[in-house]
Write a structure and sequence with these properties.
The structure holds two protein chains of two kinds. Chain A is mainly α. Chain A is built from 14 helices and four strands. In chain A, α1 crosses α12 and α2 packs antiparallel against α5. In chain B, the strands form two sheets. A two-stranded antiparallel ribbon of chain B has the order 1-4. Chain B has a two-stranded antiparallel ribbon with strand order 2-3. Chain B starts with a helix and ends in a 15-residue tail after the last helix. Classes of the chains: A mainly alpha, B mainly alpha.
Chain lengths: 329, 304
């Protein structure tokens, strides 16, 4: 499962950036998997936690000199703060997790589509607040000056750590309890599993990872802006997760790699490729069209995602593969 | 009295747009459990069908050059055709996929539509003057209301009544309601699934065309992102109305329009920018209060 290899030590700058971004996305999508995959509830709200994490790290790491101009309303302790990369990223994750506790306790009482809409409402609230809370977030304008410390190595390390956390969760008793409540809610309740409590745990854990992903992304771009954490990121992340296979960690990772490769392939084609003497390039905007069509084709061919419910195994033992049967009703 | 009439009309005309959008989404959800994220892009596509494809800022009218009644018919037709085409090309092949996959497929389709528009019209908003005489105010019990708002409300009422008649009084309507209620059972009783689904897509697309006409004559601009905010609110309205319940979707659309205008009116000036946050808080409260939606009787969980 952890077949992530830092490939591109010798690659060009563009490739390095592509892969760095991919690993940051991986932290996000693995975080999303931790909740969505184990609980079966599609969440549109996790990019809200990404937004919270990104702004938290901006408050903690932008040099105080610059904060005086962009975000004037910060309290003294934050205005003077200038933490190093690692503690700031972790604190950003913790803030997102702390927000997730009350939100989760309220929202996790819902199920199915109602829960999805409620998480979307959460995303819309976060976006609305961060776009208008001028004193702390500079409104819709960007906060600049975040140290760009996310590179290929740090992002790879964080992605691996995120995968480990998600794996540890899903084999723990909490993960098992939540998946049983996903597949057979009535039987799980009869066995004494408190679904709301279990979901809240997963929600908080995945919010932590998404907050970390937001902070990493902020340190990758050096700039944060509320609209960078809204619908398009939400959809891309969900598309990665579902294309790969929603209820498998390997699927989440595969989806990220697959979509990233697809995007960079079409970006290259859009820039122009020369084959022999002839060079051809696609018109601008065709990249997204092609990606959309490719996604639809994959979904038609493999409705359960590229990986389905399976996981990559270290050893080849197909007989041990976990099988889930749908109830016959 | 006159002071209250203006916000009342604001609320009803905003609610009309939301209600039409929610209805378009609920119709399709009812028959095939698909949350159609491409719906907003249908709206944008219908708007751009009025214009000649060109990446220049100013462009001539395509469908917009026709006489008014033909504009209306052709835009509704474009919406219906686009929607039916998306069913035939994409969603029909995903008939047995789970809702999450359907949703992501519709989202991918939305990307495709949006970027087709981007390639052919560029991302800059364009000005369209469609029926400028409609923004003239009319006197109405002492308040001056833009004619367009009155017309929006009238059009919505007519469309809703027509749809009610269609659903309650015709054979297709009966089949569609049966399919929305219990799709498997309806098929067993001889409802032709594919035909009903096509019909639902057609009506839903035509509703998107109606919204497009209202929007473009209200704002006077065509923007490739213009359908999205409406789609999101309509989507929320569909859920709090009760997924698949058509009257619930319409009611919730009007309700959201009313809440939105009321908040705009009542919130103090310095927290008014946070209006949408309050709107969505209300949505969450509503979901917690009735998770199965306002118009769904009975518990949504399975009985044991």
């Amino acid at each position: 499962m952890l077949i992530v290899v830092p490939i591109d030590l010798f690659a060009s700058g563009v490739t390095t950036r592509t892969f760095t971004e991919m690993f940051v996305q991986m932290v996000l999508v693995v975080g999303l998997y931790l909740f969505v995959g184990n609980s079966g509830v599609i969440s549109f709200g996790h990019v809200g936690f990404m937004c919270i994490g990104a702004y938290a790290t901006a408050w903690l790491t932008v040099p105080p000199m610059m904060k005086q101009f962009t975000i004037k309303g910060l309290p003294e302790i934050l205005a003077q703060a200038q933490l190093p990369f690692l503690p700031s990223v972790l604190l950003a994750g913790l803030l997102a997790a702390a927000v997730a506790v009350p939100v989760g306790l309220v929202l996790m009482r819902l199920s199915g589509i109602a829960a999805s809409i409620a998480t979307f409402a959460f995303l819309a609230i976060v976006n609305n607040v961060y776009s208008n809370w001028d004193a702390w977030t500079a409104g819709t304008s960007s906060i600049v000056g975040i140290p760009t410390e996310t590179n290929i190595w740090t992002s790879w390390l964080f992605a691996s750590a995120a995968i480990l956390v998600a794996y540890a969760y899903s084999v723990s008793r909490f993960g098992l309890a939540l998946r049983s409540a996903r597949d057979e809610p009535v039987a799980a309740a009869a066995a004494g599993i408190d679904m709301v409590f279990q979901r809240t745990i997963a929600f908080v854990g995945s919010a932590f990872l998404c907050g970390v992903a937001g902070a990493l992304y902020a340190h990758f771009l050096g700039v944060v802006n509320p609209d960078a954490f809204f619908l398009s990121v939400t959809f891309t992340a969900l598309a990665m997760l579902i294309l790969g296979g929603m209820s498998s960690l390997s699927g989440a990772v595969t989806g990220v790699v697959f979509v990233t490769l697809l995007i960079s392939l079409f970006r290259t084609l859009e820039r122009g490729v020369s084959v022999g003497d002839a060079s051809f390039s696609l018109p601008a905007g065709s990249q997204e069209i092609a990606i959309g069509i490719a996604m639809i084709l994959v979904l038609i061919r493999r409705p359960a995602g590229l990986i389905g419910n399976r996981e990559f195994k270290w050893t080849r033992s197909p007989a041990k593969a976990e099988r889930r049967h749908k109830p016959a009703i | 009295m006159a002071g209250l009439l203006q916000p009342l009309f604001d609320a009803i005309s905003l609610g009309s747009i939301y209600a039409l959008g929610a209805l378009g989404i609920a119709l399709i959800f009812g028959v095939m459990r698909l949350i159609n994220f491409a719906h907003g892009h249908y709206i944008a596509f219908c708007v751009f069908a009025l214009l000649i494809p060109s990446t220049e800022v100013v462009t001539g009218m395509l469908l917009g050059a026709l006489p008014s009644w033909l504009i209306v018919l052709s835009v509704l037709g474009v919406g219906a055709l686009l929607s039916i085409a998306s069913e035939v090309v994409v969603f029909r092949r995903l008939r047995n996929a789970n809702p999450a996959v359907l949703m992501i497929a519709s989202f991918a389709l939305g990307i495709v539509i949006q970027n087709v528009l981007l390639v052919s019209y560029s991302s800059r908003p364009k000005s369209v003057s469609l029926w400028p005489e409609l923004s003239l105010p009319v006197e109405f019990f002492g308040a001056s209301i833009p004619l367009l708002q009155v017309l929006t409300v009238l059009v919505t009422v007519v469309l809703l009544l027509g749809l009610v008649f269609f659903l309650k009084r015709t054979r297709f309507g009966l089949e569609m309601r049966a399919a929305a209620e219990n799709f498997t059972m309806a098929r067993m009783l001889g409802v032709r699934a594919n035909r009903i689904i096509l019909l639902a897509f057609g009506i839903s697309g035509a509703l998107a065309g109606a919204i497009a006409l209202v929007l473009v004559s209200q704002t006077g601009t065509a923007d490739i992102r213009m359908g999205l905010p409406i789609m999101l609110i309509a989507f929320v309205a569909t859920v709090i109305g009760g997924m698949g319940s058509l009257q619930g979707a319409v009611f919730a659309g009007f309700l959201l329009g009313a809440i939105s205008v009321t908040l705009q009116l009542l919130l103090p000036l310095d927290i008014r920018p946070f209006r949408d946050a309050f709107l969505y808080l209300a949505v969450i409260a509503c979901l917690i209060w009735r998770p199965e939606g306002l118009f769904r009787a009975g518990p949504s969980s399975e009985r044991v």
